[in-house]
Amino acid sequence: MQFIPHTKKDKEEMLKKIGVGSFEELLSTMPKEAMLAKKLNLPKPLSELQVSDLLSSLAHKNRLGTTFIGGGVYDHFIPAVVDVVCSRPEFYTAYTPYQAEVSQGTLQSIFEYQSMICELTGMDVSNASMYDGASALAESVHMARSITSRNEILLSDLINPNYIEVVKTYCRGLNVKIDVVPHKNGQTDLDKLAEMMDEKKSCFLLQHPNFFGCLEEVDEIEKIVHRNGALFVVCVDPISLGLLKPPGEYNVDIAVGEGQPLGLPPNFGGPFLGIFTTKKEYVRQLPGRLVGETVDTEGKRGYILTMQTREQHIRRERATSNICTNEALCALACCVYLSLLGRKGIQEVAELCVQKSHYLYERIGKLNGFSTAFNAPFFKEFVIRCKSSPEEILKNLASKNIFGGLALSKFRVEWKDLLLVAVTEKRTKEDMDRLVEELKSL
Fold first, then answer.
1. What CATH number should be reported for the domain holding residue 383?
2. What's the gap between Cα 377 and its chain centre?
3. I need a labelling partner for 93 at 20 to 30 A (CA). Which of 82, 294, 356, 365 fits?
4. Contact yes or no for 384/393 (Cβ under 8 A)
């Protein structure tokens, strides 16, 4: 059966209408080296059973190892109930249903997610979610520019480099000036921040804990930023809020973060979840969707999209963002995860991350050929300085099914001897001792 709706005559008429003789003419502007000059070398067709066997054989080639990789994606424990709820047919869809008359369950789950994120961060308002932590941070820049009517931004050098690139991409073509505050001893240089912050800056972007895993002097930074009339934007690790003071308590204007640690697997890099929160006074500039609770004509509780300030729903020039959706299924996973852990559970996870990471930090710091790079307090990630190549070290560890961390040379040349190590609550003492012994043998 043919599923292509256009007949040969249809195609000829369309090509004639646009003034070309063939479909190939439409491709004439493409470089010849980008064109496929031969037929695809595809394997012979397989039956469903054969495909299943082939995929199973390929899957068995994957190696399951112990991971200490961080840098924005973390191997946290996920309770089995999270997948069970998310896999229910009422929720499991590639589409984000939001019509109130048919999607009360989805809207309620988003409302519950928003409520829990507000409680976790101490902020007034959370949207229904963004694509990921990087896009949430970038969206905060446009929001800050809109609120302050200023076109310059200041950001810490110790924000995840991938996030910085996304911010630069969002600002490209908009004549936005971006200045970067350098770091000192694993933390943002406060003297440089005070020197560079002025009344032209719309906001200051900070990651806390930062990319090196170190904690920042957030109370001092808040004073510097606000005395210049700029907005204070912080990108947080949500797990850290089980122990650290939430951004709402140190007067942050916009708090964002990557929600992946809250019930989402690393999953080859996505899909993830962008957390986005702000103060109530800025709710009208909030990007994306906001679900609210109301009552119907009979007085029964119901949920609706209170705001959806995107270009599809209002005049384009008034849209706060061109992000047209939210990560509803990922937000549901986060909602279930937080519901299961509760206040005490999230605190226990954070405490385990601190205890275990500090144990490994002290053990590696005593090895020959390795030293701790910074003395600043940290949460669950830390940086090790290596006398030999971090890439070679990781290659050797991987051969023994240990994924020992993240070589920072991939981000900057001056970080060529640095290794970022992350420790979550899943790592056992045996896991960490084995890593230390393998490093010692190297």
1. 3.90.1150.10
2. 23
3. 294
4. no
Summarize pLDDT for 80-137 with one digit per residue, the tens: 999 999 999 888 876 666 676 668 888 999 999 999 999 999 999 999 999 999 999 9
271: Cβ contacts below 8 Å, ≥ 6 apart: 132, 264, 327, 329, 330
Q: Are residues 139 and 107 in the same domain?
A: yes
Could you give phi then psi for residue 23, rounded to 5 degrees? -65, -35
What percent of the chain shows pLDDT beyond 70? 95
> For residue 387, what is the DSSP state?
S
pLDDT score at 309: 65
Q: Do the Cβ atoms of 394 and 404 come closer than 8 Å?
A: yes
Asked if residue 377 has a cis previous peptide bond (ω within 30° of 0), the answer is no
Q: Which two three-digit tokens encode residue 267?
A: 């999953």
Domain end, chosen from 323, 338, 353, is at 338
CB neighbour list of residue 404: distance below 8 Å, 6 or more residues apart: 68, 393, 394, 397, 398, 419, 421, 435, 438, 439
